[in-house]
Each structure stands twice: as C-alpha cells, then as structure tokens.
Amino acid sequence: MSPLSRPSHNVTVPWNARTRVHEYGGGAWTVADGTLWFTEFSDQRLYRLDPGSGTPVAVTPEPAHPSGVRYADLRVVPGGVLAVRETHPAEGGAADVVNEVVRVGPDGDAEVLVSGPDFVSDPRLAPDGVTVAWLQWNHPDMPWDAAQLVVRGADGSETVVAGGPGESVVQPVWGADGVLWFLCDRTDFWSLYRWSPGSEAELVLDVGADIAGPQWVFGASRFALLDDGRVVLAYGRDGGDRLAVLAPGGEPRELDLPYAALRQLTAIGDAVVCVAGGPDSEPVVAQVRPDDGALEVLRPARELGLDPAWFSRPEHVAFPTPDAGTGIATAHALVYPPTNPEAAAPEGELPPLLVLVHGGPTSAASPVLNLAVQYWTSRGFCVADVDYRGSTGYGRRYRDALQGRWGVVDLDDVVACARYLADAGRVDPARMAIRGGSAGGYTTLAALSMRPGVFTAGASHYGVADLGALAEETHKFESRYLDGLVAPWPAGRAVYEERSPIHHVEALDTPLAVFQGDEDAIVPPDQSETIVAALRAKGVPHAYLLFAGEQHGFRKAANIRAALDGELSFYAQVWGFDLPDGEGIRPIEVVGL
Questions:
Q1: DSSP structure class, residue 462
Q2: pTM (2 decimals)?
C-alpha cells in the first residue's frame, strides 16, 4: 500500500476545505511534514492541523465581515505558506476587490509579496528559498488570454519570463536544479517550456495538442517533474487524454492506461499520482510508474452498484459548421448513444436528442463517466456534449474563434451538431432538446430565441438571459470577461442587447424549463426570473424551480436529483411520453401547457 493511501488525520465534520477566491476556488489545502493547512469554507480563514491533533486551529484572524478575506493556491514554504489572498471590502463592487500574493506565518502574520496586478496566481518559491515566481494578469484579459510569468530574484529584480498580449502561461514549476518549467500557448497549443535565470524561455515539447486547460480554478497540474529529470505529462487528443513520459532529449512515450481524463499530476519519487477517470469510471486517485506503466488505485471511485453494461461510451465526432469569419469550419462533440441493457426502443423509432452545452464558455466536454449524462442515455436519449468553437483542448485558434462572437458561433455549432446527427438518421428531428448551465444556459436560451425552429424543448440551469446585466453584476474575476467574448462594456451596449435572449423573447416560443440557486453570485437569480417572467407573459409552456441555499451549480443530492427528474418530467409532458415506472418521479408543474 502506498503511504498516500494511509490517512494521517481524522478530522470530523463540520470542517469543509473549500475556498471562494475567484468564486470558483481551488488550491484550498496543502500538506507538508504531516501538517495540513486549509481554507475553511464557512469563514474563509486559513486553518492548520498539526500531526496527532484532531482539531484544526485558526491561523488568520477573523475577517471584519463574513468571507471578507479569502485564501487559495496554498503552498508550504519555510516559515508558513504562500497563498493568493483575496480581500473584499464591506462595501463596494468588483473593482474594489484586491488580489495579492502573501506569505502567512504560523501565527497568522501576513507578508505581502506581490500586489498591484488585478489578478495573481501560482506563487512558487525556488529551491534557493528566496527567488519566487508567480502568474499575473489584468483586466480585461482572462488568464487564458494573456497571463505573464514573473520571477523576482534575490536582488529584488523582476523578469517577465513569458506571456503577455496574445500569450497565456499556466503552471510554473521549479525543478530541483533551479530551472523553471511551465506551459505556454505561444505555438497555438499550450506546450511545455523551461527557463533558467539569464536565458530565454526554451520550447521543450509541442505535441500538437493542448497540455494545459483553462485556469478556472487554482492548483491545476498537467505535468510533473520526476526525481530523475523526466517529465510526466497529460494532453488531449481525439476527445480523450493521453499520459506520456518525456526523458531529457527524447520523445514522449505514451502509456497505455484505462482512463480518458487525467488531472492533478503530482510526482512522488519515480512515480506520478493523478486524478483519473474514463467513460466507465468516475474519478479515482491513481499512482502510475512510468517505467513499466504499473497502475495502483489509491482511492477508488465510489461503489455505484451498476453493471458497466448500463454505461454509454462516447464517440468523438467532428462535424461541419459555418465558418462565420473564424477560419474554422469544423466543430467537435462527444456523442453518447442511448444505452439500456433492459430496454430497447420500438422498431423504427429514432431516439430523442439532448444537446449539452458546457459552461465557461471557455471550457470543454469531458469523457469521464458522468451519471448526469447516463441518466439520459439510460432513458433512451442520445446525448451530444458539444465542444463548440471557443472550447479548450483544440489550440488557441479554436479557443479564440469565440472572441467577439459569443452568441453567434456557439449557436451555429450547437445547431449544426443537432442537424448533423438528425441528417445522419441517428436522432429524431422532432424531439431535439438543448440544455446547459451558466454560460451553457446562455447558449441554450440564445439558441431557442435566436435560432428558432431547430429544438423543440430546452432547459436552462442558472443561465444568462441578459448579457448587459451580467456585465454589471458579476464578480471581479469575470467582470471584464465579456469585453473579449462580446464587446467592451458599456460602449458595446448595442451588441449586448442584440445577443441577449431577453431582448428576443418575441421569438422564444419553445417550451423551456429553468433551474436556479437562490445564492448564486455568478449568475444572480434575477437573470432566470427575468426570462421566466417573459415566458409567462407570452404564455409559452415553462417550468421554474428555485433551490434554496444553492449557489452556482447544485451540490445537495436532493436538489441534483430534483433538477434531473424535473427536467425529464418536463420533456415527458412536452413530447408526450410516460415517465419510467417505479422511480417515484413527481411531475414538475408546467405552466401554459
């Protein structure tokens, strides 16, 4: 058994290691020499749990107001931890939030190391104990647009190693020899680079695919440095991840693993530990030895009690789509066929289609077993998880194709995917639905209101109805996100109105179900309630469920189930089919049907 599989602490509820920095969090805990440091969700303070103790102690002082000071991206260093600190004033808006790199000592004293940029991340101390590297970026850029890698030496001088306008850097890692490794998209794809003081950044490996992903959360890791100088890295290809080992001066050697998604790579001597999953496996914690590919599962997935025969395996599909001035006329999707070993569709009947639109929109579909997808495929639906242009994993050109075109090319792509599958005789064109959450909810609403006549039902989960309201209301991290995706705000108000579903309700005649959390700070509830009011005024069949205590995405099991069952019930009533027997699904109230 690996040492990592042996618990060293026994911490009981109600402790919850989760940070709200950037609202999406990440890097909420770290361990060194048996001591656990973490951010507690309820008050966002930094806590420490020492060996042999079952009770964490607060390190940072209680903030002046709830969640006013938050910590993320924690790394243990001599004398404490490095962290990103986000300070929210008692009054003020997104522009008043301050993000800094700090060193927090065991007594809670914080030394500010980096202040000034709008955003900072990945503070990393070099082996000399003095030199520090970090990432920084400023509005209106997001980190995948233009993030700089900065190094401050012992003499206080700062060097911009890579990044800047049109170039994104992620995941800086110091080697034991003082060489700094990182991923940069200078070559179109996020590729592997290294840098030594006094030299220029050197491209080490470009595999023609993205190694990194978008930095929505802190602490992501897609490569790891082994003690012997080799690099283990993950990269995407054909809708799934590969794990490869790179020896100095050699070519990457891919390992044969039963997984299609690999995250959080961490080196442990001559092995790598990662979070891995695949089409028939929820995420596990696995240890892989690159020399022989030996695999040990340190933390298995939960026991589902399901025969894998129930699991639908995705097919990576590339389909034609209108160019729309992007120079790219092909988009991608993971297509899951209906799968149920105990039932078959009536002869000659095509399955209904459910088009999934991921959030972000700078994100991507994942081939990991997702019971929310299998919920639909086991009930006879074909599911298409669309990587419209703007998604990650296909290089910067593909990602940048959405710049200035959100609400245009994503709509073209979801419509093109649905028509492609219908024309191929794989789905019933009279029963095609679209659904998504957050940014995916926006594309759902926009497709129904601005590309009418394709989908006959839809579901928006905490989706954006009014782009202008989102630009004015949302949190700091995304407060200028739409400048690139749509137009600068408020100068581009006319473009925002042109692409906002709420300004096209006259064309919104498709039955729609809406699901929302009442504590959502990213897409506030009034976004959903505005579209529901418009549906009610028009008499369009609709359903609305507001979940108390939920934020941006539903976490409570009962609410997740209620949203899925409610959506299935909605489609059943709109399309006229019976709900499954014996599942106790209560029909959702559909107004106007």
A1: S
A2: 0.92
